[in-house]
Amino acid sequence: MASRLLWASSAASYLRISVSTARPFSSVVKGFKYTDSHEWVKVDGNAATVGITDHAQNHLGDVVYVELPEAGVATKQGAGFGAVESVKATSDVNSPVSGTVLEVNEELKDSPGLVNSSPYEKGWIIKVSINDAGELNKLKESDEYAKFCEEEDAKH
């Protein structure tokens, strides 16, 4: 086994191939808006779909439980509406916009790992009506958020 690893390392060095096991930078979806607390929002008319970013799920590790609000509950921009529990930690999930919860992702009750495997598609957490579209101007665009994450990671 050790000789195979040595051979692979030597071959990689000779071929100038990187064998780093570090995970590449987390993905960011253009057209979405982002918060400093690592939630994303996808706007569709007067409604928004909300979840946690790939960056957030990557730092949390394997998600084992998602605390969901009830439909009809009011949300306030920046205020918590639920939580995500992982093998490493529990993190509050804050609403990027003020509004009313229209729908929750019931699939997360049985499959919380969707937050890890598909944070921007199947792992969404809530859909909310938007009370004030002007609040979207306080959120980051994808390029701003990507830079924010890179700077945050450089500090650690």
TrEMBL record:
UniProt entry keywords in alphabetical sequence: Lipoyl, Mitochondrion, Transit peptide
PTM-bearing positions, type N6-lipoyllysine: 88
Reported cofactor(s): (R)-lipoate
InterPro entries given in the database record: Biotin_lipoyl (IPR000089), GCV_H (IPR002930), GCV_H/Fam206 (IPR033753), GCV_H_sub (IPR017453), Single_hybrid_motif (IPR011053)
UniProt KW Mitochondrion keyword: yes
GO process terms (BP): glycine decarboxylation via glycine cleavage system; protein lipoylation
Tagged with keyword Transit peptide: yes
Protein name stated in the entry: Glycine cleavage system H protein
Organism listed in the record: Rhizophora mucronata
Organism phylogeny: Eukaryota, Viridiplantae, Streptophyta, Embryophyta, Tracheophyta
